[in-house]
Design brief:
The protein has helices at residues 8-25, 27-33, 47-70, 75-97, 100-103, 105-121, 127-153, 160-182, 192-217, 229-239, 246-272, 277-285, 294-311, 366-374, 378-388, 393-400, 406-410, 414-430, 437-461, 467-476, 482-494, 501-519, 525-533, 540-548, and strands at residues 158-159, 222-223, 321-327, 339-342, 351-357. The protein is mostly helical. The chain has two domains: 8-223, no CATH class; 236-548, no CATH class.
């Protein structure tokens, strides 16, 4: 597009053009967001396409700078510009220093199955229409995995942990495809043969990909997954718009570890002054629902949190929203040991989110099952329900989806999202949602876990902490069950700067709240929260500029 004007209208046209190109290449993301133009297609991951798109992103960055310098954009469009610039820079930084496309076989399995799974889990269209699109996507899997193999063949070394994760995901993909073959394909008579044949074709392609893992990839030298200090600090600055260097971030995490342990000791004395806090936490963790009651227990807690938010006027709850508690899909259980939130799609009329709860694996040994279940203690569920649901992630994304800007509905940072949810844990405690010391103790234990994440995130991706030592830190310091700590660190290895987002985001939001109250002491808590959430899930530095007029 050749520009002659640099106003809001031409900016909007440019954005629409870029987004359509993005969704052509990544149809799975489009479906996830609630855009269904490309539901029949699967992502294009051949290196030529990926490289061409990165060049387009680099060109767009230069055009964005022109828009900034010309000074003809409204405040809202300038905010969109800064958010988009951050996301474009993130893509270029990660491609240069941390390309999972080149080195991570698990990425492709996750992309393919997630793009198909969403056709089953969301009711955005009649079942016949969704299943027809599913069949077409399944037919694309052979092409998609062939492109994946070509990318991975070019890699000189593959991180062993990512290879192991790919093996685990392949098992889950087989179960997913078997379910389509044996059950889903028979639900609609007209599509029965087509869906069945497509799933068989996809299954054979995954079998071939498995052989590729065990022959070609397994023969490669073991690679490093660490992103490196330069990559990490560039992401902090350019994407999250945070002012910290690695050592400053690590120092914050270490201080919060010490401070949180001191708070834990104080609360533990209220429960039983004769015992060590670690012993008390282990005892609290033994009070769990049964595996059979797990989902219903979560559902009851979610309902209680929503009622409390409404009755105490903490933040507005938008119309037309709902939250369903369901089991974590098989594909994601290896890296999500407890629970997670599948965001409300920003462009769907039906604002229904999904709260994933990871059930106890029936194949586990009795000892591992007990250990895993202890991560679902009743006290932990009380905190987790508000973190993922109300007033946490679900409510925040429902607000973000009301933003008029397409850019700010789609792009954002985990520092805002995770920081908001962690802020809500403290908020609900302060407002009296849970007053017993046992739940407060678990909330602080989870804060300790988030503080450990900051330290692990920095050290893991600067090459100063091994995978096993990171697991040990979660197990011994944060009291995370070892089986779950392994799953956690697997995820951290793939997502530099995401694990630090929880605690750092909370600190940034709470500092903003204090500063805003200083300027506007008459503003109610609800009004502050509504205004905070009205910007989307964007870097908090940009929210600060808009709300306070300062950096």
């Amino acid at each position: 597009m050749e520009l002659t004007e640099y106003n809001d209208h031409s900016f909007g046209f440019l954005i629409d053009e870029f987004l359509d190109r993005l969704f052509q290449i990544h149809p799975g993301d489009a479906t996830y967001l609630g855009i269904h133009k490309y539901d029949n297609e699967l992502d294009h991951v051949d290196m030529t396409t990926l490289r061409e798109f990165l060049k387009e992103e680099e060109q767009l960055i230069n055009v964005m700078k022109e828009f900034r310098e010309r000074g003809q954009l409204s405040r809202d469009r300038l905010l969109d510009l800064e958010v988009l610039l951050g996301s474009l820079r993130k893509d270029i930084i990660t491609d240069q220093y941390f390309s999972r496309y080149a080195n991570d076989p698990s990425l492709y399995i996750e992309m393919a199955i997630s793009a198909c799974h969403i056709m089953l889990v969301r009711d955005f269209a009649p079942k016949e229409e969704r299943y027809l699109s599913l069949a077409k996507r399944l037919k694309e899997i052979p092409r998609f995995l062939m492109e994946a193999k070509e990318n991975l063949r070019r890699s000189e070394a593959i991180p062993a942990i990512w290879l192991d994760m790919a093996r685990q995901m392949l098992l889950s993909s087989r179960q997913f495809l078997s379910d389509i073959i044996l059950n889903v394909s028979g639900e609609i008579e007209l599509l029965k043969n087509d869906l069945y044949a497509s799933a068989i074709l996809a299954s054979k392609s995954f079998d071939d990909f498995h052989k590729f893992l065990e022959t070609e990839l397994s023969a490669k030298p073991e690679g490093e997954f660490a992103a490196g200090k330069k990559c990490f600090e560039l992401l902090l600055k350019e994407y999250h718009m945070l002012p910290y260097a690695c050592d400053e971030l690590e120092a914050i995490g270490l201080k919060y570890i010490d401070d949180t342990i001191e708070l834990i000791r104080e609360v533990s004395k209220e429960i039983d002054f004769r015992k060590e806090w670690m012993q008390i936490i282990d005892e609290v963790k033994m009070d769990t629902p049964s595996p059979q009651e797990l989902l219903d227990y979560y559902r009851r807690e979610v309902a209680l949190t929503k009622r409390f938010v409404l009755e105490n006027d903490l933040v507005s709850i938008p119309d037309n929203e709902s939250l369903e508690v369901i089991e974590t899909p098989l594909l994601h259980r290896a890296t999500l040991p407890y629970a997670a939130y599948m965001t409300v799609p920003p462009f769907e009329k039906d604002q229904r989110g999904y709260f994933w709860v990871t059930p106890i694996d029936e194949q586990m040994t009795a000892e591992s099952a007990r250990e895993h279940l202890s991560g679902h203690s009743k006290a932990a569920i009380a905190v987790r329900a508000l973190h993922e649901g109300y007033p946490g992630h679900h409510l925040q994304f429902c607000h973000a989806n009301r933003v008029m800007s397409k850019v700010r509905r789609i792009f954002g940072t985990s520092v805002f999202a995770e920081g908001w949810a962690l802020h809500c844990e403290e908020l609900m405690k302060e407002k009296g949602y849970y007053s017993d010391a046992r739940t407060r103790l678990i909330q602080l234990k989870d804060q300790l876990w988030r503080a450990c994440r900051v330290v692990i995130d920095v050290r893991l991706h600067t090459g100063r902490l091994t995978f096993d030592d990171a697991v040990t830190m979660l197990f011994e310091t944060a009291r995370v069950e070892r089986v779950s700590a392994v799953a956690e660190v697997k995820r951290y290895s793939q997502t530099p700067t995401q694990p630090m987002s929880y605690l750092i985001g909370k600190i940034e939001i709470e500092q903003l709240a204090m500063d805003y109250e200083g300027q506007h002491p008459e503003t109610s808590l609800k009004d502050f929260h509504d205004q905070l959430l009205s910007f989307g899930t964007i870097p908090i530095a940009l929210v600060r500029q808009s709300m306070l007029g300062t950096n």
